[in-house]
User: Fold this.
Amino acid sequence: MHLITLALLPVLTQAVNVVLSNDDGWAEINIRQFYNALTGSDNSVILSAPAENESGTGSSDATPTRLSSACEFNSCPSGSPAIGNNASMPRFNYVNSYPVTSIRYGIQNLSNTYFSGPSSVDIAVAGPNVGANLGLTTQISGTVGAATEASKEGIPGLAFSGTTGSQTAWNVNPVPAYSAIYADLSTNVTTTLVASGKPYLPANIWLNVNFPPAGSGTSCTSTSQFRFVLSRINTATLISGKDVTTCGNGGRLPTEMTVVDTSSGCYASISVGHADTKLDATATEQQTVLSKLSGILSCLPS
Ligand SMILES: *[C@@H]1O[C@H](CO)[C@@H](O)[C@H](O)[C@H]1NC(C)=O
Ligand SMILES: *[C@@H]1O[C@H](CO)[C@@H](O)[C@H](O)[C@H]1NC(C)=O
Ligand SMILES: *[C@@H]1O[C@H](CO)[C@@H](O)[C@H](O)[C@H]1NC(C)=O
Ligand SMILES: *[C@@H]1O[C@H](CO)[C@@H](O)[C@H](O)[C@H]1NC(C)=O
Assistant:
């Protein structure tokens, strides 16, 4: 009787502790929109991201240094300390170093101030990156570097990237449509994964999520038009093991590039990777993610 009653209840949104980073810098509009969307879903979020544009810096890592020029978009003055925050929004933190260094500072250090330490961080997200991170590009992406660093530290890491846009300051007015759409879609994936229960991802696994063009001048102008499709990061080779079987695919997932490039609709790709190599996960690990995200996954049109 109780079980039946519970099963009929709507899925409740679970509030979790999130560390948010990127490689385009702490003052870029996409990361601020994502912060707003995540907190709008009642999550407790710490933004900890590079002081400057650190696009393409992969898994580089270095001790943060005092600013020798202004933070990006003049968001902090030259000469500012190596690590700092927005005095009126202290959850917005910059770290004058690489994406990996900044997400680790959020997980290891800021979590003591806003949560109850590193083990209380539930999930780590990075992006949405300005520009897609598909296939081999994942190897040099700092956004992927940040997400994989989190997974290596035992915190499930998700990387989000959007095809549309160029690096834009946080205080732009109006907010570009693509930025709001990507933030909502990223929140959707994050909340759906959280609703699937712990562990959110298998050990050493991260997700690479890419969005097709969106907003003004595109045919994808509203979040409800988008569909998520399970994909591979890299093109399979002769020695690649089989992928998870789904959508009648005979054991081979489409590449994320194929998904994002599908012209007859608005298809976002979700790939499952190993954090240490950034390469594709096994069919078993893909199956775990497929089960967790089945409520939002679709098949490509045939
Ligand atoms: C950010 O860095 C990347 C990689 O060096 C570069 O391609 C891009 O133009 C930079 N963006 C800005 C706004 O300077
Ligand atoms: C800091 O926060 C204030 C208050 O929300 C805001 O007006 C300002 O634009 C923010 N600046 C940066 C660089 O985040
Ligand atoms: C961050 O935390 C680590 C681990 O506790 C510590 O070793 C490091 O000194 C801290 N970094 C800063 C800048 O406070
Ligand atoms: C998430 O996306 C799915 C599928 O695209 C959609 O059905 C659902 O309404 C979305 N949920 C939210 C909270 O946006």
